[in-house]
Specification:
Ubiquitin-like_domsf, UBA-like_sf, about 10% strand, UBX_dom, K48-linked polyubiquitin modification-dependent protein binding, cytoplasm
């Protein structure tokens, strides 16, 4: 009938080898109880080592009042009888009844139809237990899968956050690099502009110097040309270190000493006279020469420098 050999041996031992029917009843009454200790006593059997009676107590096998043993369990709520504790527990779990008591009523043996029905009930019970176990395993698998997915999502989120932080660091580094490059380019551009302005200023200064030189050369040429003429007067412009220049007309035959005397009226202390271009400082030995001899006719510009 599909029962394992260990279970059959347990049933035969529990019923003391009373036969097929009692063993079958025990197997049906204990569908999933494999943890029950071996050598358990049969239903209604007294514990080992205790005699059911003695010759001094009366007739052999006689049960006195109050010495009846339990033959079944009774549900006090619905008055149903059950063969053992397991059957009573199944009834309690299905019906919710809680009040049970021992009964001396013996339950008659099962008929073949009842045995088949009982066997089907046992098979159904075992199938339900298997289904419950599979459902529980499925729920546990789903729970583990949820935990795995949650852990995976958390790991993915943490990885994405780390990548975002690294990307932000990279973007900040690139931004700083671009800013440094912009500042460096601006400095180079400013230096180029400064160099350009400096070159322009130098060219302008060179132009001005060339123009001045040309003017002075032209003035010198005009002076030299006019010197060949017979001028009786000359107009001198005397530039002082500070203040407006002194302008005066002298005779061409006047000596340089006359010019010194004229300047002493405005300058105190020692001084020297010199031409502007080409620059020539007159010495004391030249004060006796005439302005015509010194090429200061018909006009000239002299510088007054104090010592």
């Amino acid at each position: 009938m599909g029962f394992p050999p260990e279970k059959v041996a347990r049933a035969l031992q529990a019923t003391k080898g009373a036969g097929l029917q009692p063993a079958m009843d025990w197997l049906i009454a204990h569908p999933g109880d494999l943890d029950e200790p071996a050598g358990g006593q049969a239903l209604g059997e007294q514990p080992s080592g205790e005699a059911s009676g003695s010759a001094n107590d009366g007739d052999e096998g006689e049960i006195r009042d109050g010495e009846q043993t339990a033959q079944s369990l009774q549900c006090d709520d619905c008055k149903k009888l059950f063969r053992d504790v397991n059957a009573a527990e199944r009834h309690a779990s299905k019906s919710g009844h809680e009040n049970f008591s021992e009964s001396t009523t013996a339950i008659k043996p099962l008929t073949e139809e009842e045995k088949k029905a009982k066997l089907e009930e046992v098979k159904k019970f075992l199938a339900e237990k298997k289904e419950m176990r599979l459902l529980q395993e499925k729920e546990e698998a789903l729970s583990r899968e949820k935990i795995r997915r949650k852990s995976g999502k958390e790991l993915t989120d943490a990885k994405e956050k780390l990548e975002q932080r690294e990307m932000q660091k990279l973007m900040l580094a690139k931004k700083k690099e671009k800013e440094d490059e912009r500042i460096a380019k601006a400095k180079i551009k400013a230096q180029i502009e400064a160099d350009k302005r400096e070159r322009i200023e130098k060219r302008e200064a060179a132009k001005q110097a060339a123009l001045i030189q040309q003017k002075e050369e032209a003035a010198a040429s005009a002076t030299a040309a006019s010197a060949s003429k017979d001028y009786t007067e000359t107009r001198l412009q005397l530039r002082r270190p500070s203040g407006p220049p002194l302008t005066h007309t002298f005779q061409a035959t006047d000596t340089l000493e006359v010019v010194y005397e004229f300047v002493r009226q405005y300058i105190t202390g020692p001084f020297k006279l010199s031409t502007t271009f080409p620059r020539k400082v007159f010495e004391d030995t030249e004060q006796g020469k005439t302005l015509k001899e010194l090429n200061l006719v018909p006009s000239a510009a002299l510088l007054i420098s104090t010592e």
